[in-house]
Write a structure and sequence with these properties.
Helices cover 33% and strands 18% of the residues. By secondary structure, the protein is an alpha/beta fold. It is globular and about 45 Å long. The two termini are 13 Å apart. Bound molecules: coenzyme A. Coenzyme A binds next to strand 7 and strand 10.
Length: 208
């Protein structure tokens, strides 16, 4: 995947949110204001992107980066404390979407573009003896509510994880996964509709 700057990753997130929340139509000023104030999932994504930006700036220039870094630490605290969302993934591609809030932990090693999650999802550390670690997740992956994806496993592109799944095994591209323990329910499963808002075309994730 082409490397994107943090700014462009955030632009991709906004494009996807607008596409889903406004049915692909260009929102007016008040609709946008309402969205920026009231969409709590978006607040979490924005705080994560700001944290990435602040960390990079801090590493480059201590004096310029110190205040953004401190502010991002405070935002992260608020997001964890009040929103109950913790995002510590090293990289997440553009088009990162959190639908609803409620105990979300995203701690994958790296996550591709167009990643969608919703409430009560965990992407984290597996504790299996000898194979501890965190998941690597491809592009266009959708994780349903109440699912846990854990361990040093690789999830391919276009994978769909049904609500209520516990997954601790590597999964190839295009699979529909469900259950506990998780099983492959279908292959070449087309999940594009899951990334749309109300029957609208899929969001375009721009690589500026
Ligand atoms: C509890 C835990 C340590 C157990 O690990 P484990 O013994 O290696 O087993 P797994 O979780 O991978 O799988 C459980 C069982 O389901 C089986 N299983 C898992 N996926 C399967 C699949 N797709 N098909 C068939 N069986 C499967 C495994 O083989 C295992 O059975 P076994 O012990 O008879 O081999 C591990 O599941 C774990 O770390 N869980 C915590 C995850 C978590 O909540 N992390 C978030 C932290 S932020």
């Amino acid at each position: 995947m082409k490397m994107l700057s943090n700014h462009n990753a955030f632009t991709g997130d906004i494009d996807k949110y607008y596409s889903i929340e406004f049915g692909g139509k260009r929102p007016g000023f008040y609709a946008k204001l309402d969205f920026w104030v009231n969409h709590f999932g978006f607040h979490c994504v924005a705080a994560y992107r700001f944290g990435q930006f602040a960390t990079r700036l801090y590493k480059k220039n201590f004096f310029l980066g110190f205040i953004p870094k401190a502010l991002s630490g405070f935002l992260s605290f608020i997001i964890r404390m009040i929103y109950h969302v913790e995002i510590s993934a090293v990289t997440i591609g553009p088009g990162f979407y959190i639908g609803h809030l409620g105990s979300i932990y995203i701690g994958g090693v790296s996550i591709g573009k167009n990643f969608s999650v919703t409430h009560n999802v965990t992407v984290g550390l597996g504790h299996s003896f000898g194979k501890e670690g965190r998941p690597i997740i491809g592009d266009n992956v959708w994780i349903g509510t109440g699912s846990t994806v854990a361990g040093a496993i690789t999830i391919g592109n276009n994978v769909t994880i049904m609500p209520g799944t516990f997954l601790s095994r590597a999964i190839p591209d295009g699979c529909l996964i469900g259950g506990n323990p998780a099983r492959v329910l279908a292959q070449n499963y087309d999940n594009t509709k899951l990334f749309m808002g109300n029957g609208d075309p899929p969001p375009v994730i721009f690589e500026h």
